[in-house]
Amino acid sequence: MALIAATLCAVFGVAGAYCQPSSGTPAERPFDFAYEISPILARHGCAAAECHGSATGRGGFKLSLFAGDPMADYEAIRNEVTGRRLDFATPLQSLLLQKPTRQIKHGGGRLFRETDAPAQTLVNWIKQGAPYTTGLKQTLSEIRLTTEGDQVRVTALFDSDLGIEERNVTDLAVLESTNEQVARLGDSGRIEPVGPGETWILARFGHLNTRTPIRRPFSQPLTLASPSGSENPLDVAWLRRLNELGLDPAPAADPHTVARRLYLDLAGRPPGPTELRHFEALPPQERIPATVDRLLSTPGFSEVFAAHLADWLEIPPSGQEERNPAGRDAALRESMVDWIAEGSSLGEITRRILTERGPDRAWKRFTDPRDRAEYVGRSMLGLGIGCARCHNHPMDRWRQAEHLRFSAFFSDPRPAGDGAMMTGLFFLPGEGTPVEPALLPLGTGDAPRGASPEETVAWFVLQRARDQFSRNFANRIFGVLVGKPLVSAPDDHRISNPAIHEPVLRLLADFFETHDTDLRPLVRLIATSRLYALSSQPPGPDQLSGDPESLFLARRQARPLSGKQFKEAVDFVLGIATHRSPPPDSPLARQLHILNSGLLQEGLNQAGNQIAAIFDFEPEPRRQLEELFILILARPPASNEIDTFLPGLISARDSLAAGRDLAFALLASREFGSLR
Amino acid sequence: MNRRAFLTSMGALPFLPRLISGNPFLADSKRSLILVWMDGGMSHIDTFDGKPEAPPDIRGDLVATESSLEGVFVSEHLPRLSALMNRCALIRSITSPEGNHDRGSCYMLTGRRPNPVLTYPTFGSIFGHEPVHDSNLVPAYVAIPDAHEYARQGFLPITRGPFEVGGSPGDRDFSVKDLVPPSPLEQAMRLLQKVDQLDGGPKSESELGRDRFLDQARFLSFNPRVRSMFDTSQEDEPTRTRYGHHFLGQSCLLARRLVENGVRTVFVRFTGWDHHQGIASALTFGYPPKLTALDQAVSALHEDLDRRDMLGNTTVMVASEFGRTPRINPAAGRDHWSRASSALLFGAGLKQGVVVGKTDPRGEAPVERPISPADLFYTLLSALGADLDQKLHTATGRPIRIVEEQTSLIHEALA
C-alpha cells in the first residue's frame, strides 16, 4: 500500500498530504471539500479580493472572501451555472479546471498546469462525484508551523471519532513571509533567504492561522555570558535579542538629552535650569532613577498619562468633542487625571469606563453596537476586529459570526412586549431573530453568573483576555516612552503584525500583569532602562532611518514633539501662558504656525517672560547666552555656538531685542521641536 | 540687505527662476483639479436636472429652462452656466446608497463607502504629490477655507494632507492663516538658520521632514512673489467682480491663481447646501443668493481658464455628497436624496457638451446609465492622468488599490 502511494506521489507529484498510508490515497479515500479542495482556492488566490472573492465575484463566479465560507463555495461550484463548472464525465473539461489551467480564457491567467498537483486533486475529487465531506465527521483543531533547515512544514490536527489525526498540509496551506527583504517562500514551503533581519512566516489553513519567526543575523551573533551588567529585566531581554540579531546597541545619550527626555515624557515639559543643575549634580548612576521616582509623583505625570490614556481610549481632545457632549468628555478626562494621581491601575480605570453608568462609559459615544464592540477591541485589547464585521479575515482569530455575537453585548436595552426592557439583544438587519451574545474566542472560562452585559464585557477584557489587555497597554506605554511601540499599529495586534521584539513585549506584559496593571512600576522599568537612554545620533547623514539599529531599537529615533507638547514646552520656557493654540498636525501648517502665528513673537514680548528676566538680571553677555541655551534647549551652548552667537549679543545696542531674536531662533529650531 | 541677498539667505533662490520664467504649470503636462464642493447636498432638480414638466410638488418654485445642451434643463437662476453647458460634461445619474452627510461625502470624496477599518484618501492626497524638495516647494493640495473630514489623506501619511488656508477669500480682510509674520523676522530667521546649521543636520527622517516643511513655509511666507499667489487683490477689479465679491467667487479666483503656480488640487468647500426648509428662497435670496454665487463663480472660472489657455491642464468638478428629495417637504424644503444627484465637470481630459445619464420624470432615480460615486471618482482621476496602476500602502504596509474593484469609467465623458 505504502509503495503504491509513494508511486502515485512520484508520478503525479501529489503532495505528501495525500500519500500518508493512514489517510489513504485519493483513489480510495473521499476528499473533504473544506480541508482539501477549498484550500486550493485560497492558496492560488482564486478567493482573493481582486478575483472571485470580491463582493460581486468575477466573471459570474463568486467565492467567499479568502475562501472563508467553504459551504457557500461548494454550493457555487457544485450547483450554480447548471453544473457546467463540474463535468463528471470528463473532469478535465470542467470549468473549474479549464479556467485555472487556461485551456479557455481566464482573467486570472494560468494558475497551474493540468499535470500539477492541484489539478490532479481537482480531477480526482470530481471523479469521486465532488463530495462535500468524507462522511467522517472531523474538525480542524490546530495547525502547527515548524521549520527544518530551509523547509517550512505545516501540520494540521483533525479531531474525529477515530481520534486525532495529523496531516502534513504544507502544500495546501497559504504561506506568507512578513518581510520579503529577509526571506521569501518558494514552492512547497521552501524558504529562500534574501537578506539579514527577521521575518515571520505566516501559515493559514482552514479557519486557523499561526506564525513563526525566521532570523538571519546581521553579523555573527555575539556570545555574551550575561548580557551587560544590567539588572533591569527589560534590558536583559532586549540585549539578548540584539545578540541573536548580531546588533550592537548604540552608546548612551549624553545626560542633558536624557534629562530633557525624562522631563518631557514624564512631566510634559522640559527641565528647568535648576532641575537640570540638580540632575547634573547627582552621581551618574543615580541621576535617572532618582529623577524618575521624583517625576512619577508629580501632578505633571498624572496629566501626561491621563492625556495618553484619553488618546488610547479615543476620548476626543478638548475642542473636538463632536460626537459626545463636551461636558462629558471634559469630565472624563479630568476624572482620569484624578484616578492616575490616586494610583488607580489601568485595570481599575478600564473597569470604571466599561461598567459605570453615566459619562464614564466611553463606548456610549457610538450608537451602533458593532462600533462599540470594535472600539473596546481596538482600544482596550489592541485588536482590530472590524474586518470580521464584513467577512472572515484570514489573519484574525475570530469569524464574522463571533464579531456579531460579541457586538450583541453592546446593544441598548429595548422595550419588550410586556412593558419590561430586554437587554443584550441584537438583531440582524432585516431579520427578526436575536443574536445570542457571546464573548470573542480569546482565553477560556465563563463569566460570573448573573453578570450584566457590561460586567461580562469588563470581566472578559480584564480577566479572560487579561493577557491581551496587558500586551496592549504595555505596548502603548513602551511606545510613548521609547517613541516606537513594539507592535506597530498598536490597535491591531493581528498575527501578520508581529512585535519587533516579541520576548520584550512578553516580558513587559507579564511585568505589567504581575504589578496589577499599575502604571508607575512599568513606566519606571522602561524609563530607567539602558534602552530608554540610548543615543539618537544617526550613523551617517544619509542613514537617518531604516538602518537595522533603528529598526530593532538598538538606537533611538528622534521624533517631533506633538503640537501640544510643543506649546507646553514654549509656555514652560517662557514662564507664561501664551494665548495661542498649539501648532496643528499638518507639517506645513505647523512650521507656518511656529514662525508666524505669534505664539513665539507675542510670548517673547509678553511682560514677565523668562527671556526678558535673563536680560534684566544677567548683565554679562556670555552668561546671558548660556542661560538662554540652558533654559530653551536644556543644555549649555557648544563652543562653536558661543563663537557664533556671542559677538551679536556683545555688539547689540538693544541686548534684549537681540536676545529675543536668538530665543526665537532657538525655540523654532530643529532641536527644540524634536525629542531626541 | 537687498531682496536678492535676503532670499538667498532664506534658501529661496533655487525656485525663483521657475517663477520668474513665467507659469511653471504650463511648462509641463501635469494636470490640476479644482473641486468645488457643495457641502450639505445640492438639489439636483433645482440646479442641473430641472424637471419643468413634473407636478409642482416635484419641480418646486424655481423655473428650469432648456440649456445650450439639448434636453438638459437648468435652473433659470444659473443663466451663465446654462449657456456654458455645451462646453461641459454633465453627469445626471449619480446614484448611491449613502444618504447621510458623512457617509455620502466619504463615498464621493474617496471613491469608497465608509469602512470601519480604513479611511481612504481623497483626490488631492492621491495624485500630484512629489517629495518636497528644493525645486518643489509649492504645496500639492490646498483647501479653501478648510478640508472636509473625508477630503483628507486617510491612511496615507499626513504629509499628503491638505494645506488649509483657514479663511474666506471673500472677506475684506482675508489672509491665509499664519502666512505673514506679525512683525519682521529677518534677524531671527538668519539666527534660526545658523542654529540649525550648527546642530549638525537632521537626526531622523522626521527632523529631515521638518527641515523641508520649514523651507516650504519660508518659501511661502518670505518671498513676496510667491506669497502673492494667495492674494486675490492682485487681480484687476473687473476680474474680481466677474468672479463675484463673495466666498465662492473669490475662492474660485484664488483656486485659479494657485493652479497657475503649480498647486495640483484645490478643494473649495462651499457650505450651506443642506436645505431642509424653504429651499427656493434659500437658493435665490440672501447675499449672495446661493445659485447666483454658483453661476457667477463657476462660469467666471471657465471663462478665465479658457482665456488663459488653462482648460487643457485644469479639470474642474462641481459636486456634492448627494442630491435632494424630488418631492418638496412640508417645510418647503428638500431632504437628503442619494438615489440621484448631478455633477458638473469641465476642462482637461473631458469631452465638451456631453450629458451622461438621465433620471426619471420625477428626478427620483436614474433611468439610464447609473453611475456610482466610485465610477465618478475613477473617471475624474483618469481625466487628471493619475497613475492608477500604482498601489497605495497603509501604515502597516498593506497594498491598496486606488480605485475599488468593479468600478468602471464613464467613457462617454472622457476626451
What would you say this structure looks like, in words?
- The complex is a heterodimer of chains A (676) and B (415).
- Chain A has 27 helices and 14 strands.
- In chain A, the strands form six sheets. A three-stranded antiparallel beta sheet of chain A has the order 1-2-3, with no helix packed on it.
- In chain A, helix 16 crosses helix 17.
- The longest helix of chain A has 17 residues, at 326-342.
- Chain A starts with a helix and ends with a strand.
- Residues 1-26 of chain A have low confidence and may be disordered.
- By secondary structure, chain B is α/β, with parallel strands linked by helices.
- Chain B has a single domain (32-181, 236-413), classed as Alkaline Phosphatase, subunit A (3-Layer(aba) Sandwich), CATH 3.40.720.
- Chain B is 32% helix and 15% strand.
- Chain B has 15 helices and 16 strands.
- Chain B has an eight-stranded mixed beta sheet with strand order 6-5-7-1-8-11-4-12, with helices on both faces.
- The longest helix of chain B is centred in the middle third of the chain and has 18 residues, at 205-222.
- The radius of gyration of chain B is 22 Å and the shape is globular.
- Mean pLDDT of chain B is 89; it is low at 1-28.
- Chains A and B meet through helix 13, strand 13, helix 22, helix 26 and helix 27 of A and strand 6, helix 8 and helix 9 of B.
